[in-house]
């Protein structure tokens, strides 16, 4: 494939800028309609919010085009759209709350998130450099998960101990732990995918791993159970364990790992339910939310959210015409219910479609990038966003028990916004490597003797014999066995 001159990438820059303008227009239109619906005028702070959002979005666009010129041109506008619509929703709630200042805080954390994302794009010139931090990332992730359990540092809020407080500042470490775990899993699986995919005995059609290969998954299982039991947080527990099992499947293409993972998680969850009362309460709320004994207490928030979405119907009550003040935490945990009340089922499906676009683009670049670590990291980051979306929406709609996770980019929350903007920055960095013509090296590229596959076997380049894989370049690597049954050809865009 011939190299492209930099100016030949200009249409993608224009397309991204146009999409950002559309995204900002939709968010500003929402704020405008909220103001005229409630006050018959532009809402207070309309121009401040609009100008700051526009400045932040185009700053990110410029940084992206300078530091990663071949990066995906759809992901950033999609995230800007979600942030803009959430600003309209949170501003609408502030207008009926005398002490409401959530819109200002949401804008502040959005600004900080975009700044951090730009810093990540400047600092990380090649995503493969993260592979050197494989086991460091594991330690960081475990420490972050344990922090809320430290006496005097962690604090229980709304039944879950997932927050830490340092003076006037608070944070939810699990949001950052998921990024650290994704880096660790990608590095570990690239180095060990062949033994995980091929070694071991078969039992009832399943490829069972060797006992020594179960070490990392047992550690993650134990950490997930510790989160579930000690922090009373079913959502984070499911998120961590689901991330590892999902990335195991991406790396090995073995259904057996999914079966083993589901059995282990189900066994741990059943054991926790039989022992701990707070887990039993969450399950009871899920199964019998309309029970009169629960509606005025534990299930009040869930029931009010269901009533709000029911009131919205197919097309919603309209911006500013709902009653978000009756849904506790409608600006954060239950912002999805607030959106459903005013935008209806149609609006909720449109929002889910935007998330689907982000996840699809992430998975697409996981296929397109030329190294195994990048494939697994991009796939893991896209998968964890999809899983978090399912856990949040599933809890609010009673598909699964309610959890304490927040909707990425939309819920008002500093930790969530910061962490998810970092995820987007890493996705964009990997997409730049995936879309960059092979004749043009990545900025500061590391030595990469051959592209690596997500599957557990050798890669066949141009129909030739299997070559030594990229796994030698990172932690604990080795050559791929020549008898591997999975041969994946490189992607030629």
From TrEMBL:
It is found in: Membrane. It comes from the Bacteria. The keyword Transmembrane applies. It is a multi-pass membrane protein. Residues 461-493 are annotated as: Disordered. The chain crosses the membrane at residues 14-34, 46-66, 73-91, 106-124, 133-150, 162-190, 211-229, 235-251, 258-276, 334-356, 376-397, 409-428. The keyword Lipoprotein does not apply. Pfam families: FTSW_RODA_SPOVE (PF01098). PANTHER family: CELL CYCLE PROTEIN, PEPTIDOGLYCAN GLYCOSYLTRANSFERASE RODA. Keywords: Cell shape, Membrane, Transmembrane, Transmembrane helix. InterPro entries: FtsW/RodA (IPR001182). This is FtsW/RodA/SpoVE family cell cycle protein.
């Amino acid at each position: 494939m011939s190299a492209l001159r930099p100016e030949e990438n200009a249409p993608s820059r224009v397309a991204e800028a146009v999409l950002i303008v559309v995204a900002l227009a939709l968010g500003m239109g929402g704020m405008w309609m909220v103001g005229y619906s409630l006050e018959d005028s532009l809402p207070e702070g309309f121009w401040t919010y609009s100008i700051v959002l526009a400045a932040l979005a185009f700053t990110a666009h410029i940084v992206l085009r300078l530091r990663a010129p071949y990066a995906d041109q759809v992901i950033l506008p999609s995230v800007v759209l979600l942030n803009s619509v959430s600003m309209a929703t949170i501003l609408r709630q502030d207008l009926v709350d005398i002490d409401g200042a959530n819109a200002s805080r949401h804008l502040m954390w959005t600004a900080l998130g975009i700044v951090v994302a730009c810093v990540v794009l400047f600092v990380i010139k090649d995503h493969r450099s993260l592979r050197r931090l494989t086991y460091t990332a594991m330690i960081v992730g475990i420490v972050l998960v344990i922090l809320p359990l430290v006496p005097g540092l962690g604090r229980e809020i709304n039944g879950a101990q997932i927050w830490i407080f340092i003076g006037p500042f608070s944070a939810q470490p699990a949001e950052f732990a998921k990024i650290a775990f994704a880096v660790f899993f990608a590095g570990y699986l690239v180095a060990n995918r062949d033994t995980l995919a091929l070694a071991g005995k078969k039992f009832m059609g399943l490829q069972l791993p060797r006992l020594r290969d179960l070490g990392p998954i047992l550690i993650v299982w134990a950490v997930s159970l510790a989160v579930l039991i000690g922090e009373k947080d079913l959502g984070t527990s499911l998120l961590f364990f689901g991330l590892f099992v999902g990335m195991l499947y991406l790396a090995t293409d073995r259904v057996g790992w999914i079966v083993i993972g589901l059995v282990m998680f189900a066994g741990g969850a059943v054991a926790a339910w039989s022992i701990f009362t707070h887990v039993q309460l969450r399950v009871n709320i899920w199964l019998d939310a309309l029970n009169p004994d629960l509606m005025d207490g534990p299930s009040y928030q869930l029931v009010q959210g269901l009533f709000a979405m029911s009131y919205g119907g197919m097309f919603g009550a309209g911006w500013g015409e709902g009653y978000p003040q009756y849904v506790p935490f409608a600006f954060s945990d239950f912002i999805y219910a607030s959106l459903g009340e005013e935008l209806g089922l149609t609006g909720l499906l449109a929002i889910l479609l935007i998330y689907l676009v982000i996840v699809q683009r992430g998975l697409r670049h996981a296929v397109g990038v030329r190294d195994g670590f990048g494939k697994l990291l991009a796939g893991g980051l896209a998968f964890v966003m999809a899983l978090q979306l399912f856990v949040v929406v599933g809890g609010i709609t009673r598909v699964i028990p309610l959890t304490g996770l927040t909707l990425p980019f939309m819920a008002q929350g500093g930790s969530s916004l910061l962490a998810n903007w970092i995820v987007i920055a890493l996705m964009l960095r990997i997409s730049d490597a995936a879309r960059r013509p092979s004749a043009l090296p990545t900025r500061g590229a590391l030595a990469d003797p051959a592209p690596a596959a997500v599957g557990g076997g050798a890669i066949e380049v141009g129909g030739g014999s299997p070559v030594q894989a990229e796994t030698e370049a990172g932690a604990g690597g080795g050559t791929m066995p020549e008898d591997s049954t999975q041969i994946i050809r490189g992607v030629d865009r």
